[in-house]
Amino acid sequence: MPNNHIIKTNAKTSLQNKWAQAIGVGAILLSVFCLYIILLQLVNMPISAIFNEYTSLFISIAIVVVSVQLFAMPLLYGALRWFWFTSADANVPINEIFCYFSSGKEYLRAFSLSFRIFVRSTAILLVCFLPSLIIVAISSPDTYDMLNTSMPYWASSVWALGNTLTFLGIIISFILLLRYFAAPILMINDPSITPNEALDLSVIITKNANGRTLSFVLSFFGWFLLSMLYIPLIFTLPYFLIAYAVYCRFLINHYNRRVADAFKNPFNGRI
After folding, report:
1. What is the DSSP string of the chain?
2. Which of 193, 197, 209, 250 is the most buried (most CB within 10 A)?
3. 124-144 pLDDT, tens per residue?
C-alpha cells in the first residue's frame, strides 16, 4: 500500500481538468444538505408545539434517520460513483449522481446498503458505549431523582471511570466501524454483488489494514477543521470524496495482489 502522500497526489491528479465538474457534484450534495436542514426545521416547529421535549426529540431523530436513509444516502452513493469512475480517468456526466434514483432495483441496492450499515453501526455503538452509559447513569444525581431515592456516597466518585470507558468506547467503535469503510465502493464497482456481500467483503479487505485506514482518515484532520467554516466545503468535499475513492482502489488492488500471491504460493512462506 502506498503512503498517504501518494494517495492524495493521485487524488489531485485525477481531478486535473475536472475540478469544475467535481465542484458541481459537491455543490449538488451541499445544496441538498442545506435544503434538507431547512425542511427539518420547518417540520420540527409543529412537532415541538404538539409534543413534549423528549417526545419531540425522539420524533425529530426518527425523521432524520428515515429521511437520510431514503434520500441522502442514495444521493451520496451516486456522488461516490462519479468520483470512483473519475479516479479511473473515465469521463462521467454529472447526472451520474442521480443514478441510484434511475430505477427501483438500483435504489433498493443503495437503500439496502445504507440501512445495513446503519443497523450494524448502531449495534456497534450501543455495545461499545453501554458500559460508559451505565457508569454515567450511576454517577448522575438525575438518575436517583427519577427513582425517588438518595444517591449513594460512593456513586459520585465513579464519574472518572465513566470518562475512561467513553474514551475507550470511541476508539473501539471507530476501529470496528472502519471494517465497513470500503463497502460503498465495492457495491459501486461490482453491480453483481449484493449489499450484504459488499459489507462482508469490506470486512475481509480491511482486516489487515485498519491501522492504514485510520492513518488515512486522521491525515485529513486539518482539512476537516477548515471545512467547519462551511464555505471551504465547496473545494474540500470533492477532495475528500476523490481521495476516498483512490484509497479504496489501492486497498482493493492490494487485497487482490495478496490473494494472487497466496494462490501462487499456497504454503505462504511456511516452507
Report:
1. ---HHHHHHHHHHHTTTTHHHHHHHHHHHHHHHHHHHHHHHHHHHHHHHHS-HHHHHHHHHHHHHHHIIIIIHHHHHHHHHHHHHHTTT----GGGGGGGGS-HHHHHHHHHHHHHHHHHHHHHHHHHHHHHHHHHHHT-HHHHHHTTSPPPTTGGGGHHHHHHHHHHHHHHHHHHHGGGTTHHHHHHH-TTS-HHHHHHHHHHHTTT-HHHHHHHHHTTHHHHHHHTTSTTHHHHHHHHHHHHHHHHHHHHHHHHHHHHHHHH-TTTT--
2. 209
3. 999 999 998 888 888 777 777
